[in-house]
Amino acid sequence: MSIIVASQFDEDFNAALRAHPLKPAVIPVPGDRPWSVANDADALLVRPTPSWEAHIQTPRPESWPGRLRWIFSGSVGLDRYPAWLLDDVPVSCSRGVYSGEIADYVISAIYAHGKNLEARWG
Q1: Which of 1, 11, 54, 66 has a CB 3.0–4.6 Å from the CB of 39, allowing a cystine?
Q2: Closest C-alpha to 29, from 74, 62, 59
Q3: Residues in a beta bridge with 28
């Protein structure tokens, strides 16, 4: 079975994805109409680019969702995509991926501010 992934991610990520044991085919996503690969891919990896935001009011394309079986957003929020992106196909996002690091940063910032560390070491 061959899996085709349409990816808006950078080439380093895509190269690592191609090296996965399942050996998926990774194809690029056109910048001006990122949804147009829906008929060519099983999965769509997106990020909130200006092209998505510019088309937030674009009506649902006739061919949507094509052969897509899964959509993954590399961001936490899904509000920068057209509403129809969330129809008919399971969508997941990066919610919680950095929650530990964010918590560490917040506690560090509170401690640094409370102890005035910048004045001591600045």
Answers
A1: 66
A2: 74
A3: 7
Q: Are 42 and 67 in contact (CB under 8 A)?
A: yes
Residue 100: per-residue pLDDT: 87
Residue 12 buriedness (CB in 10 A; 0-12 / 13-18 / 19+): exposed
> Given a cut of 80, is residue 1 above it in pLDDT?
no
Cα–Cα distance for residue pair 80/58, rounded to 1 Å: 12
* 92: helix, strand or coil: strand
Decide: pTM greater than 0.90. Answer: no
CB 77 within 8 A of CB 93: yes
Verify cis geometry, omega within 30 degrees of 0, for the bond prior to 65. Answer: yes
Average pLDDT over residues 25-53: 93
Let me know: does 25 contact 2? Beta carbons within 8 Å: yes
Backbone phi, then psi, for 86, in 5-degree steps? -90, 0
Rg (CA), the chain: 19
Q: How far apart are CA 28 and CA 62, in angstroms?
A: 21
